[in-house]
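for the recovery benchmark. tokens below, seq after
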């Protein structure tokens, strides 16, 4: 069915029969279906490529009846006699009605149109075996059904040569826009209407009419649809459901985006999942894709709205269960399967602004994502050279030699050359620094903003390249975003994650929603401007990000909890002032310790010190002042610590005094006092840094630069 164009009734009925005006209005409003009409014209003309029997099928609302009405007009214009049988209106006696038309069909070149064939039990087989063999050879027969043609049309060589099956697709973007224009939908509502309908002509027409009219049947910019319209769409697109279990199956699929039998098992149990999955696979509005079964967009949105209307708490609980199941999968399965689970997690949140729908991986896409093979390397280097330049391709060549497993590609199904690629490099301390100038910038950022602790590593997403003709790296970046989610959620993930992308601002907002912020590092690689994006996972761990996703759905949050939220700028921490010490370098940490010691007698100033929320201050629930004072008192227990201890107590713990007065009080020279005080600050900083970085103890064989300097000073 096409979109119904808003017309002036008074101006459209100036004379003639009312049916003629109805037919004319249908013709004006009809959109698309050029391939189907061409096939029908070829059959009417008796052309060699024409088939006398056409079978059009597709889900409810896809436009089968509208197409048959249009073909009826085409046949009439060609001078053909048209016989129409509607299975929805006469399901019981359709065979009898067709038998009554036998004499009429003996007339010259008739056209038989059979709509809603699925409603007439046994009619399809009766037509093929008993009725159609007796119609004239120049007749044209078009059957429309929600279900595909029976196997007999394809396995019988005779019918296979005479019949053609055509599945009606959803409207294209151009066709959808034409309907919206004809319906006079307010431009601000176009996007939400288009996204809800997903190209389904019936849903598009009904929702467009609601958006145009407003009121109780109206439509909001966020995709809000009235309960009455939801009920109408559910009845027309889905129909009745056998049991409550089938409704739950639909709700799981609608919420998850795509569904596998494994996912249904987590919600329904083993036996019920197998039966429900088989039922779902047979539905005309469910499509098998690489990641499971996918509902047509209009059906998915209708089911989701219906569930929210009928049981909002239950639907929210379902969302949380699916979230927990997918996160557990990411944590426990192999990495390749974890990437699939990460993609499923993205689809779970695809209609929520916390994730960027404009850059998501499309479940309908006829491509598969997998590790790069040796035979793909030349193609991958070519993609990178085309998209980022030859210098970047040379850097990629280095990493293909040293980390070939880091490269992933997207290729057509079932097999074809890569169409997009990216690399997910896993690096230990300062690896690759001498070979790759981009990695030099990465390690510089790590040194200055959060050095690695023992046994930590980083991940770098690079070499994002897509199809040359589209100049679009979205699918390549989507690969890396899945790696980001999978790696940070799993145990033993990276301490830092970096993305290297073109410096054009396209990805800034999307990456922010994953905690990736633009850094000061910009450079040109072969004339292509690039920028470094960074996320310290120790500062913003996956647990915070995942909690933020759930908060974005529930609207709930804890003011004390570092839970991300979404506003116009993207992902933001609810506690804006919180600055975990993982964001401080070792030198910055030492500076904060010194500032904290100086502020021991000024609580308001000490409350602003970044160490206040550090690990060392949080252990045992101690406040920062107690931690610093305890570290000062323990100086006396260290070798050569008597002088530094007394200097620190005098300067920081006891009453305010000048350096000269403090030296006189201690009976030492001013230079000795200053040396002792400097030593005290360095020792306190070194000790607290190690407690911060290694709460379980310093690893064997490891000392920091501050500790090294302090130890050499003590030895001297």
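predicted aa per position
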């Amino acid at each position: 069915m096409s979109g119904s164009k808003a017309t002036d009734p008074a101006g459209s009925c100036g004379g003639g029969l009312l049916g003629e005006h109805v037919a004319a209005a249908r013709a004006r409003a009809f959109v698309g279906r050029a391939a189907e009409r061409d096939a029908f014209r070829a059959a009417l003309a008796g052309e060699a490529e024409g088939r006398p029997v056409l079978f059009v099928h597709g889900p409810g609302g896809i436009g089968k009846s509208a197409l048959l009405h249009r073909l009826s007009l085409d046949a009439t214009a060609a001078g053909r006699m048209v016989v129409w049988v509607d299975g929805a209106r006469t399901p019981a006696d359709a065979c009898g009605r067709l038998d009554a038309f036998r004499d009429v069909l003996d007339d010259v070149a008739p056209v038989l149109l059979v709509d809603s064939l699925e409603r007439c039990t046994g009619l399809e087989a009766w037509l093929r075996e008993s009725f159609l063999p007796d119609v004239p050879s120049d007749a044209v027969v078009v059957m429309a059904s929600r279900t595909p043609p029976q196997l007999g049309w394809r396995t019988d060589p005779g019918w296979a040569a005479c019949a053609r099956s055509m599945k009606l697709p959803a409207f294209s973007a151009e066709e959808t826009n034409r309907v919206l224009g004809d319906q006079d939908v307010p431009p601000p509502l176009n996007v939400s209407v288009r996204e809800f309908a997903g190209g389904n002509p019936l849903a598009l027409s009904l929702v467009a009419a609601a958006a145009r009219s407003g009121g109780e049947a109206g439509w909001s910019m966020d995709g809000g649809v009235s309960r009455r319209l939801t009920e109408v769409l559910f009845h027309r697109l889905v129909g009745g459901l056998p049991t409550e279990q089938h409704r739950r199956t639909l709700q799981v699929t609608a919420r998850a985006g795509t569904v596998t039998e494994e996912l249904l098992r987590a919600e329904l149990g083993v036996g019920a999942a197998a039966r429900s999955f088989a039922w779902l696979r047979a539905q005309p509005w469910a499509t098998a894709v690489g990641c499971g079964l996918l509902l047509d967009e209009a059906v998915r949105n209708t089911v989701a709205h219906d569930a929210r209307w009928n049981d909002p708490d239950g639907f929210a609980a379902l969302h949380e269960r699916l979230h927990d199941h997918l996160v557990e999968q990411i944590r426990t399965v192999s990495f390749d399967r974890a990437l699939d689970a990460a993609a499923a997690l993205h689809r779970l949140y695809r209609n929520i602004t916390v994730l960027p729908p404009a850059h998501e991986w499309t479940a309908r896409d006829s491509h598969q994502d997998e590790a790069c093979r040796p035979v793909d390397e030349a193609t991958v280097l070519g993609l990178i050279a085309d998209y980022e330049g030859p210098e970047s391709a040379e850097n990629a060549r280095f990493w293909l030699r040293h980390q070939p497993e880091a490269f992933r590609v997207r290729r057509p199904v079932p097999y074809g050359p890569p169409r997009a690629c990216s690399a997910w490099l896993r690096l230990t301390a300062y690896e690759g620094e001498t070979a790759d100038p981009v990695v030099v910038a990465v390690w510089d950022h790590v040194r200055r903003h959060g050095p690695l602790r023992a046994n930590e590593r980083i991940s770098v997403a690079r070499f994002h390249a897509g199809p040359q003709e589209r100049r679009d790296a979205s699918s390549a970046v989507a690969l890396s975003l899945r790696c980001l989610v999978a790696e940070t959620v799993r145990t033993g993930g990276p301490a830092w994650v970096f993305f290297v992308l073109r410096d054009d601002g396209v990805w800034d907002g999307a990456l922010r929603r994953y905690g990736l912020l633009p850094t000061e590092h910009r450079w040109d690689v072969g004339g292509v401007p690039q920028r470094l994006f960074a996320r310290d996972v120790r500062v913003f761990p996956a647990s915070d990000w995942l909690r933020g996703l759930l908060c974005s759905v529930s609207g709930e949050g804890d003011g004390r909890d570092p839970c991300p939220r979404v506003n116009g700028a993207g992902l933001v921490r609810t506690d804006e002032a919180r600055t975990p010490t993982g964001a401080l370098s070792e030198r910055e940490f030492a500076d904060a310790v010194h500032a904290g010691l100086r502020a021991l007698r000024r609580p308001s100033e000490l409350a602003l010190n970044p160490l206040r929320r550090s690990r060392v201050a949080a252990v045992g629930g101690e406040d920062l002042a107690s931690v610093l004072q305890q570290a000062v008192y323990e100086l006396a227990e260290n070798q050569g610590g008597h002088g530094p201890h007394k200097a620190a107590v005098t300067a920081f713990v006891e009453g305010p005094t000048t350096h000269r007065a403090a030296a006189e009080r201690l009976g030492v020279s001013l230079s000795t006092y200053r040396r002792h005080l400097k030593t005290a600050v360095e020792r306190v900083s070194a000790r607290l840094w190690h407690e911060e970085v290694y709460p379980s103890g310093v690893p064997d064989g490891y000392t920091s630069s501050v500790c090294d300097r302090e130890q050499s000073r003590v030895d001297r």
